[in-house]
Amino acid sequence: MAAVAETIWSLLTNPTVVYLLLVAGVWAVVLAASIPGTGLPEATAVICLALAAVGFTQLPVNLAGLGLIALALILFVLEFRLYAHGAFLIGGTVALGVGSLLLFRVENGAEAALSWVTVAGVTFTSTALFSFFIWKGLAAQRLPKLQDVNRVVGSRGIAQTDVNGAQAGAVYVAGESWSAQADDKIPAGSPIVVVAREGLHLKVAKASKTEAG
């Protein structure tokens, strides 16, 4: 056990390992802010940032560098939330790269704690990762929202089965079959109009054949 603890402590005092934990925590925070409710990004962020904080207590951390990385985190989250055509993404990338280079103080002429290769690789990977998720988000926004309330309510369709208030029936609306109820009985094959939606269920009323067309 002592050997295991020593190995863990050795890793947590390695600038590169601590830096990677910090960046992983930043990634997790951005994903948690953009896709809330899953729990996994939140848990990952807490673990990675807590381990990085332990390492910071034993390393010569430059607060300016840490502040720039925090700024990068904020800018990445804003890009996810606002889709600012890459403006916040570019700013976040610059802040992350510069903050990474300044993260650890170089004392007495010693070599930089983080190599250029590590910083460049992490910055490029972060930008590529966030760009991909932003692109996916924008692509999803462009898809027609067939399940959107405003698109379904008011639509005309056909009752596939008898529909009444006591027992749900099936209707065909906007290219899909829906579970539906109505205040008055609607025979199968009758034209219907959607008057409300509750989750995956529709409230419909009988429509005239002229309205259905």
Explain the overall architecture.
The chain is elongated and about 85 Å long. α2 packs parallel to α4, α4 runs antiparallel to α5 and α5 packs antiparallel against α6. With 213 residues, the protein is of the alpha+beta class.
Task: Quickly describe the structure.
With 213 residues, this protein is of the alpha+beta class. The protein has eight helices and five strands. It has a five-stranded mixed β-barrel with strand order 1-2-3-5-4.
- Beta percentage is 5-15%
Contiguous runs where pLDDT drops below 50 for at least 5 residues: none
What is the average of the pLDDT values?
Answer: 82
Percentage of residues in helical conformation: 55-70%
Widest sheet: strand order? 1-2-3-5-4
Assembly state: single chain
Q: What does the overall shape look like?
A: elongated
Task: Identify the notable features of this structure and list them briefly.
2 domains; 213 residues; OB fold (Dihydrolipoamide Acetyltransferase, E2P); alpha+beta; 5 strands; single chain; five-stranded mixed barrel; 8 helices
